[in-house]
Structures are given as structure tokens and as C-alpha cells.
Amino acid sequence: MGRLSGARKGSTTMSDDVQAGRIEQLLEALRDDNEALRDHAIASLSQVGEDAVGPLIGLMADEDVLIREAATSAIVRIGPSVVGPLIEALEDDEWAIREQAASGLGKLKDPRGVDPLVKALKDKDGAVRTAAVWALERIGDARAVPGLVEALTDHTVHEDVARVLKKIGDARAVDALIDGLLGSNWMVRRHAAEALGKIGDVRGIGPLIESLKDEDWLVRRNAAESLARLGAKQAIDPLIPLLEDENTMVQETVEGVLASLGWNAKP
Predict the structure, then answer these.
(1) What is the chain's mean pLDDT, rounded?
(2) What is d(CA 131, CA 125) in angstroms, rounded to the nearest whole number?
(3) Which residues of the chain have pLDDT under 70?
(4) How far apart are CA 172 and CA 179, in angstroms?
(5) Helix (H, G, I), strand (E, B), or coil: what is residue 244?
(6) Rounded CA separation 193/197 (Å)
(7) Backbone dihedral angles phi then psi of residue 109, each to the nearest 5 degrees
(8) What are the DSSP E strand ranges found in 155-239?
(9) pLDDT tens, position by position, 40-59
(10) Predicted pLDDT of residue 43
């Protein structure tokens, strides 16, 4: 019995060595200039499964962004079992590993990633924070809203955050979106003007009326559309001057908005 047990142990060790050698070869293939070969390596590493996760996470720190992304793609294709290792990787000392871990969690769209990704919104590296916002957008879970609201003051990611809050459409973001609507960044104002109409909270009416005078034409148009969604008849008088707006798209939008609010031009 002892001999048989020893034989099995030796066989297992040899099998492990073969597996480790195969993984090493596939990792090298990820560095190849041939895209087809890299794609084959990604597929093969995903079939290897969890044994490849550790080496792949290490490769996410490579100086070549294509290799980093290829490693992440291979991990993601392994499936939900990699969520735990990716969450752990969000705490890695290497910023590139943290960035790719956030990206991977977004691609997996697993709700277990929400809280760790919200924490990553405060990462010291802007690229990691950007990846975390993108990932939370992919997952689309409203649990992220308080963290995203806080991140709306982060000038590195505030434009992306405004877009994600618009997409999620949660009323807890209204006050922060109003601040963004009245702020200095035109992209944030565009997203905020649209988001306030989507959320449908009457607190947005006053600031949206004020934004009808915004210097950016798309902010004015989005504000008008949102006021229509809110059924804000008190916006009729402030909307009328925009029938002669310098931008024809604003004019056309306002015509429709006024009609929807029950206004009829005098003959």
C-alpha cells in the first residue's frame, strides 16, 4: 500500500510540473506579437482554470498594456470563481494590478464586486479610480450610489461618475447632481441635466430652469427635455425665449417640450 501511495504522489508531482510548464508556455505566448496566438493563449489559459489565476494576476503588472489586458481577459474567461482573487488584487501594491482587477470585476458584472469597487473609488491612483467607475457602471448596482455621489467631487473621474449616476437613476444622487448641474464642468452639467429628468424628482425643477441659460447648448437642450419629463409647467415662460436659441437643435427640442407642457403659440 505504501508503494502505491508513493507512486501516486510522484505522479501528482509530475502532473503539477507539467501543468506549471504549460502555464508558463501560455504566459509567454501572451507576449507574442501575433494576435491570433495571443487569443489562443487567452482561451487556453481560461481552460486551465484556477491554477492559472495567480500567474495571470502577476502578469497584470506588465509594462505593456496589451499584455496586462490579455491577462485580464484570460482571467475573466475562467468565470465567477475568480471574483475572490480579483477582489484581493484590488489591494495589491502595484497600481496596474489594481486597475486591471477593477476592470476584470466590471467585465464579470458580479455583484460581489460592488463594495470593493466602491472602496477603490478612493484609490490613490487615478487610473484605478477610473477603472472602478467603469466597472460599477457595467455592474449597474444601486448600492454604489453613495460612493459614486462622494466621488462626484473627484476631478479625475467626476465626468464619468455623472454619467454612471445618470444611468443608475437613483434619487439619492439628486442633491449631488444639482450641485454638478450648477458647477463649472460642462460635461458634468450635460449628464446632470439629463439625469435629473430621468430620476424624476421635483427638486430638480428649479435648477433645471436656471440651466436653460447655460452657455453650453446641450445642457440647455437636456434641461428642457428633463423639464418636459417632470411635467414642469412653471418652466413654460423661461422656455419660450429658447425658441430663438442660437442652436437650431435647442429650438426644435424646445418646440416639442412646450407642446408637451400644453403651451400653444398665439397666432
Answers:
(1) 89
(2) 10
(3) 1-19, 266-267
(4) 13
(5) helix
(6) 7
(7) 55, 35
(8) none
(9) 777 777 777 777 788 889 88
(10) 75
